[in-house]
Amino acid sequence: MRxxxxxxxxxxxxxxxxxxxSRDVGARCDENSECNVDCLGSDQFPGGFCSVLCDSxxxxxxxxxxxxxxxxxxxxxxxxxxxxxFLGGYSCQPFDSQGAGAKVMVCxxx
Amino acid sequence: xxRRLIIAACALASAxxxxxxxxxxxxxxxxxxxxxxxxxxxxIGAGLGAALGGRVTPGxxxxxxxxxYQLSDADWFDGxxxxxxxxxxxxxxxxxxxxxxxxxxxxxxxxxxxIASVRHFLTGRDIYWPFLHGGxxxxxxxxxxxxxxxxxxxxxLGGGLRVSISEEIAIVAQLExxxxxxxxxxxxxxxxxxxGDLTVGVEFRL
Lengths: 110, 206
What we know:
Number of strands of chain A: 6
Shape of chain A: globular
Number of strands of chain B: 10
Mean pLDDT of chain A: 85
Order of helices and strands of chain A: HEEEEEE
Shape of chain B: elongated
Low-confidence stretches of chain B: 5-25
Helix content of chain B: under 10%
Largest sheet of chain A: 2 strands, antiparallel
Low-confidence stretches of chain A: 11-18
Radius of gyration of chain B: 23 Å
Order of helices and strands of chain B: HEEEEEEEEEE
Strand order of the largest sheet of chain B: 1-2-3-6-7-8-9-10
Largest interface: A-B, 23 and 22 residues
Structural class of chain A: alpha+beta
Oligomer: heterodimer
Number of helices of chain A: 1
Largest sheet of chain B: 8 strands, antiparallel, barrel
Mean pLDDT of chain B: 86
């Protein structure tokens, strides 16, 4: 009985796990149909990177910033390279912020 | 010490027999009710409600059909066929390790499930009879917008209340949690299942 309860709790915890990667921002992609909006695919986004359009940070998820790329897209903000490790091959780099005219630290490849 | 244990064991063993004996004051006591008086050995029912899912557990409108068969004084087998109708935007994607992952909301996806379970009545009063409910299901879940489907084997645990309206009809409200495992295509593989549902329905004796 105890084993069954532990197994059920384990399943329940696994089912509640979440990731900050989503079809909006961060999922790997080869084409737009794999994302809710755009699949970014240049050298700055190795493996493809799902993103949504934005005019400011307010248009992005909590952990993302709006950068001046393709008219404004959301990418993950960071404080160090370690913050970008989950993306695989990305590092923390400065980039122009969309609208604000300043540099922001975001996860980019290359 | 051994003598005390033997005396205690004898006392415990004789307790049910003493309980079955007629009381001197009233002659023969009526047997205690352990299930609703109008509950026959067979019944059918239908229910409508809401299911909460998430990730790869479907949620949405829940429609159920029941067949009940008496197993013992307080227990009935409950064979259920259940449909879940949820919404459907695409929510699956490749994460950064190239694993196909789904993150559906609580009311998304469609599902069909057959469930074999047991309803055990607790002590009730008049027309109100609470019960516990537990069983296992086999189902198929489908997320059309993602082209993802799979088999699911959840355990169902919960309870409810049966209210007799007449000798033929009862209203049944039931709340349950489902926990289990599913096997999905598109490279998803094994996924945990976690959900719950609340249904209200009507039951007819056969």
